[in-house]
């Protein structure tokens, strides 16, 4: 005996050993093994009892020992002449050794340990065998059976009675033929999910479901999770052979493959009760219905629940929540291993259960089995990719089993959304298959037509999304976007991003048909039913969170096709008949963090350099060139050779930044100063390097010294500007138009929707509703473009709704055509945003505060007036109900509140006013205001307002008229679109904005200014005197801010000094962030998405110098003043760089 | 024409590449020397370059930047013009000094390779017109036989910003070799000969061209890293550069190495609708 291969004996080699000898040894072993096997073969012995009778331990271990030896011999065998099988392998194949061994292991207690043993055996064989093994069916087949058996790890309880098993096997008839034992067939049950029905159609019908309810808010939070649920039920339902399955299918969409049938249906109960993890507050309400599902007879309960109008949504959602629900049912099922049904559900739920459940699950051996299984599958996939012939075998072996069934692939699907290494490995393995599919049409076809890969992947996103925190409360006031450090701390988010990344990978490597199907499901199964409602939740906080998620997703997507799907959703999808993009734009003007987060989202969108986005946001308003005189149009493509723009911009620098004449050097020829400046900068004497070199007091004092603050870092701005301009030029090479005033021609702009070949969008199936009537949404524009188009005649008739409210109503009705007036969840947005937009758009800060208050008061009047228009009342009531209170209300309470208020249509006036005051305080208005002061202001307001209109707003009245002409489809208006308007409006408010808002606003504007398109550049960097009728230009707004600053500085002598201190602090902070960014870039330069982050964001890790002691009420203003000066430099530098961009 | 220019001294050298040149500090801007070495000092009081922006003092700080960017803009315009046979390259030390060379391909001065230097006044664009000085005084009515300076001023009596550009000066410097003008000559001998004895004039031109070409491989007159210098054809050095030049057109990507940036567009050319492209959204 040459071989004594215990586990440690593997070091032995058989080199030089006579193959004949090996063969003899192998045969001997097999004879021994076979003897034991046959002794216990129920077929042979004919004794039923034997099947359940224990197999003596010594016999089992004997078999094990022999098998180990045999495997070793098999592995070490070289293939024969000309690639023929070696003799041992031939023997194995002829004698069907592997299958017999597998059956033997089934006959014994098929415990997890047993499975592990078998899995490891195959893994070893595959990894180390010296000849190809998988080509041989007698080896492949038992392997497939093993895989099936193991995939639903705990399906077959050790004591699973024959009957239960066989019934399960009924379902699994596809595998049936090859499944020798019944226990096995039950395990194979999962294959039934791979039924041949086409998922697409049934899916679509089911999408109707989730969008249907919508009425109550709770349903909308449930909404996100609903689609996945309803989807799964409808798609899986038809294919599920068993009755019980229909109810079980609820959860099975996410984990469909493993739902084996009856037992599972009862198992839905436990999963449903896991509602507690349902996102947000709706969870508690959702738990009710699902419980009923669980306890009643499956299938029926489902249909019965549909009777109740709101029930389906809830019960559905609860069952989708199920999969993500950690814990309880799972642990309970591991506790009771005898309940096959439950344990099943637990194991199926397990895969998608994030975090908690999984960690608990690692304890059990089932998890080890899963890990081993996935590892083996991964190994098989690697083989597949290498050898096409093996792929054929895998494919055909499945076909032999009665269904076009790529088992290997189907087995991996349940692990798609897993976290941890199992999930990663499964996704890697699937990626291999995906890349295979790009070359093999058969594989692609199978995946698209016969598997649930795409729906599971896409709706899994929905499921994972529903597990995300509905509110992010951990972040600071200045927080506005989710960065890596943020989402690393939220496991659910991390897991979602993993799945999103996997979607990207699939889109990149898979066959186009798979990609298109996946994108379709993501659009219709995630974006529309989940993201859209989530973006329209009721509280600002939730909306803000969703916005931040969307922003993060956009930044995380690295595949252009997937990104296109997301962008299509944002640009073209209409939720409640309002374009998502319009809604998002309107939110920029909200106070609170929502406005800031929305800005961050747009920063991301712009950073994509996507022509479609820019077209919708900006260019469609610029293409007609109505904002330009003909002379300007001709100058569009000229270069600003002499830095006229830069010098105009820099001349707006507040005077106290500029050294006093006495300190200024006597006039010298430019070149002298030039060389001094540049040499100094190059040596680092005057630039930031010096400032931050040691961070010492010398550096600090320098900046506060009499030296002009201005030119310190201008070279840096030039450098950044050059980079930005060059990046823009390069990025926009792929664009279809230059947007230079000629192409597209000003007359060419097509109205939306007419020519859009929506039906040809084959890759993303879009619901037909999108092509339906489009209404130009302008309500926001009107208020932004011409903030106060009408003097408010509030002294006239206090009992009537003020004119501007009427206007607002009129325009709202006109614009939204009443269709969503009944819908409660957008109304308040409209009102709140409108009011705030009006408030923000004021020229004069103080007036604006007063007006805002006044309008609210007016609104209140109207509420009390029992206005005949019901929805109007409702609107206001809603606004009153929750939007003006800081949205800390509990959701359900809020919902109640809303109903109540809308019914009563009356609120105590005092309360309302005090809320308004609170609101205004929150907006950053004067903190020391007294009520009487407010009243006085309100009295005064009319005069002030009126005069200001007369002075400044005539032009805008005209614009407004022209604007209204535009509604009838005419061009020739001078309006640059809501986005630009809202940005400029926020910019004009600079002095009142928080520093984050200012950084975002200026960052976005300077980024826009760096775009190469002459139309955009020409608009933003035009510093020529504007005609009165034109829209406000960036330069005009900057002039206005400059005036504000000068006025403020004049009124507070200490202001300039404070600004200098703030400058020092902010420059240091900037430096710290730059370093951090550099580190980040160095660390993960690999994971570059499409998004190019032009601006530094986030919280520096390095400790910062103490913020100078600036009085709190002045702080924003002081920071803003410094930022203003820096912004001028930034813009000037960009303008200069534009002049020297080389021609293509 | 077997001479080859140094590869970094072609017109292809955009400002970006200069910036990226390792010889420069990271934020390297060209420094301006106080006065070009062999230029006549400008005696008149320097007028502020911009009449519009001296009010609040920002100009004092930023004037140099405006000047430099004006010159860089001029340079990009020169490149854009693709003047036949003319190559220029701003000096390393001063944006106010550009090195150039003209190749004359036919006419009286055929085969002439004339190196020259452009001096730009430091109050550009509000000063006089730039000056063009040939390294070797070419025998030509409008070229000073001693200093080698070309009479540019006759073509640009008053330098007007927005109307006059440096590429026009270069164009003019080329034109004089094809269309001889003898009015008010700087080199009266050449003018007279051209009028009276064209054969002698021609032979003098041939001599002058030979002289110029014989000095072709000389060290540049002005010691500057970006001065144009010629060297005999050396396959080891030049072949690769030549192949590169012929092999691929300069694309914007080259301009921005290390910035793998691509935007996105699903807009069909000619359409102003988003997502109007019908083809599948593969990687752009």
UniProtKB/TrEMBL annotation, chain A:
FHF complex subunit HOOK-interacting protein C-terminal domain location: 976-1067
Pfam families the UniProt entry points to: DUF5917, KELAA, RAI16-like
Renumbered residue ranges of the record's region Disordered: 199-248, 276-350, 744-778, 923-968
PANTHER family: FHF COMPLEX SUBUNIT HOOK-INTERACTING PROTEIN 1A (PTHR21705:SF6), RAI16 PROTEIN-RELATED (PTHR21705)
Assigned protein family: Belongs to the FHIP family.
Name listed for the protein in its UniProt record: FHF complex subunit HOOK-interacting protein C-terminal domain-containing protein
TrEMBL record, chain B:
Keyword terms: Apoptosis, Cell membrane, Cytoplasm, Membrane, Protein transport, Transport
InterPro entries linked: Ub_conjugating_enzyme, UBC, UBQ-conjugating_enzyme/RWD
GO cellular component: cytoplasm; plasma membrane
Pfam families (alphabetical): UQ_con (PF00179)
Membrane topology label: Peripheral membrane protein
Localization annotation: Cell membrane; Cytoplasm
GO BP, one annotated term: apoptotic process
Signal sequence bounds: none
SUPFAM superfamilies per the UniProt record, alphabetical: UBC-like (SSF54495)
Ranges for region Disordered: 1-35, 248-284
Residues in coiled coil: none
Keyword Acetylation annotated: no
Domain (UBC core) ranges: 66-214
Primary location class: membrane
Cross-referenced PROSITE patterns: UBC_2
PANTHER family given in the database record: UBIQUITIN-CONJUGATING ENZYME E2
Protein name as it appears in the record: UBC core domain-containing protein
Taxonomic source organism: Phoxinus phoxinus
Upper classification of the organism: Eukaryota, Metazoa, Chordata, Craniata, Vertebrata
